[in-house]
Amino acid sequence: MNRVVSGKVEPVRRSYNKSKNNIPKVYVVGAGVRGRKHLTLEAISYLRKASLVLFFPFESISSEWLVDGLGVSMVESLAPLYQDGAVDAENYKRIINRIISAAQEFGSVAVLVPGHPRVGVSWVRELERRELEGQIQILVVDGISSFDTMITDLGLDPLENGAVVVDANRLLLYRLQLDPRLDYYIYHICSVGTSRTNYSNPALDNKLHYLKQWLLQSFPSNHEVMLIQSSTIQGKSSVLATCPLQELENISSLITFATSLFLPGLRISSKPIDKEFLALLAEK
């Protein structure tokens, strides 16, 4: 374990004795999308409260800034545990094991994750299982998610026409039926049909054609779709590319682990309505 102080790395050793009345605490803190700009006051308070902050370096968040700029006690990067080309489950197991061991050693740890901890961070469920076993206490601290920034960038109200947020692999695995009148935000299009985290080259095992074939059952082939990546710079366009659905594979080279696919719903001019319910809404 190292402590970063003014750019210098100093060895630190600390032990923590667990007691029945003091179960180790794990704060899973959302960092938002734009790094330092998106950290909430609540998030900062838990980072400072923890004895150790485990984090994934991204944007402007670094070990030096967390210690010197934010004043946290100690930091450790989890990046080496998330290995390129490894199976998701193996990466998550390494991360979970380190979180648990750190919590047992230090008493309280904060885990700083990009975005919101409840949006696409599946290993949080495993931490909750460990809590049920009495190993830790867990608290999830909100962060601004990529969905928040996407609807802002697109200028859309997800309630106006209705919207669905879904994982690409779950969409295909469970053969979820689509309503083409709704907007769709499809996450994890970087790893369709694979469990490997090829973040340096997502196209390596990405079977995007399976997703296209399923979407074509509900949307016309010329329906325009958008490849979205929430910009880390406010005001900068988040739309990386647009193309007809039938040409989805043509934009595969632009897909990263931070991109999502947006399918606007079909705008049907003569939508069927429930006239009796309309009468209720019209009552004064």
Could you name the CATH class of the largest domain? Alpha Beta
Major sheet, described briefly?
A: 5 strands, parallel
What's the shape? Answer: globular
Q: Could you tell me how far the N terminus lies from the C terminus, measured between alpha carbons in angstroms?
A: 67 Å
Strands side by side in the biggest sheet: 5-4-6-3-7
For the secondary structure, the number of strands is 12
CATH topology of the largest domain: Cobalt-precorrin-4 Transmethylase, domain 1
Structural class: alpha/beta
CATH superfamily of the largest domain: Tetrapyrrole methylase, N-terminal domain
Order of helices and strands: EEEHEHEHEHEHHEHEHEEEH
Average pLDDT: 91
- Please, what is the oligomeric state? single chain
pLDDT below 50 for ≥5 consecutive residues: which ranges? 5-16
CATH architecture of the largest domain: 3-Layer(aba) Sandwich
Radius of gyration: 22 Å
Estimated helix fraction: 25-40%
The figure for the number of domains is 2
Number of helices: 9
Strand content: 15-25%
